[in-house]
Amino acid sequence: MQVRFNQVAVAALVALGGAAMAQETIEVRIGHVGPTSGAIAHLGKDNELGARMAIEDLNAKKMKIGGKVAVFKLFAEDDAGDPKQGTAAAQKLVDSKVHGVIGHLNSGTSIPASKVYSDAGIPQISPSATNPKFTRQGFKTTFRVVADDVHLGGTLGKYAVKNLNGKSIAVIDDRTAYGQGVADEFEKGVKASGGKVVGREFTNDKATDFSAILTKLKAANPDVVFFGGMDAVAGPMLRQMKQLGINAKFMGGDGICSGELPKLAAGSMGDGQVYCAEAGGVEGEAKKSMDDFKAKFRAKFNADVQIYAPYVYDATMVMAAAMEKAGSADPAKYLPVLAKTAGYKGVTGTVAFDEKGDIKNGALTLFTYKGGARDQVAVVR
């Protein structure tokens, strides 16, 4: 009996040891930064929810990294769309020893923060920063999963002339890295397509009164007005254009291309009068995965996707996949694998990075608004 008892005890200990080995875990800390306060908090929260959804899905998968079950933990920070707060948030994440960062939302915060991450050797994937400079600073840690402003602004400029028959085009920007950058590229696109820019004005990203610049532009009688900036400023601008009797078509980049814009414009958008582009796009078979994501997002958070939550989700998944392939969450070990990402199938399509960290063959989706909702016009590559 004693021998039998000892055999049972040993077997139990072996089983327990095996279970303990099987459950050995590694904590993986993922940082996310976006403006979850301020005028564009609705966009920042949308991004953060995309990250939370990815973290939940990764933990449900029980992914193994280096033979250990990875337990992903999100470290979320608010940069309020402010460059100084952005670098402070970046340093906080570095001090928290995160293994990677998804963000920031704005180019104006992503660019200065990218140096902080580069100095610390921590990979950063932005789901939405489109200023070309972001990936042209020589940092090996910097990536993005959307097309840049050269593509976005240039395509919109060409569209304004060729498709909207813009003969006299006015340009306004908010003087942020994003707004000015996309407006500059738009202007180049207009001129390259044989269009004429009849006025260039600027405001700031917190302005609410545009009567002076709009009155000045009205005298030039533009048939298209382009705004480089975010939806929180574009909404009031559209209202004031209507009040002043400016009947031009209104265009903008991804910053205005949200589901919230009709509310911010408060009934000042006619059907087919506002056009924008999102730096990303799906078509064909990939459209189903995006539609499924949006339905899942809606069911989970009781909110519709604004713009970039799916790109945040894919960025998080791409980072995790690189860790899994490298067998390590150590930034120095998985960074070279991340840089070679060549065919990750995500909800936004296939993710592959070039030598700068830009997405290869990045798509754009052109939208207009009808009945107070975004209406897809075309996907352009």
From TrEMBL:
The keyword Transport applies. SUPFAM superfamilies: Periplasmic binding protein-like I. Residues 27-372 form the Leucine-binding protein domain. It comes from Inhella gelatinilytica. GO terms for biological process: amino acid transport. It comes from the Bacteria. Gene3D superfamilies: 3.40.50.2300. Residues 1-22 form the signal peptide. Keywords: Amino-acid transport, Signal, Transport. Belongs to the leucine-binding protein family. It holds the Pfam family Peripla_BP_6. The keyword Transmembrane helix does not apply. InterPro entries: Leu-bd, Leu_Ile_Val-bd, Peripla_BP_I. This is Branched-chain amino acid ABC transporter substrate-binding protein.
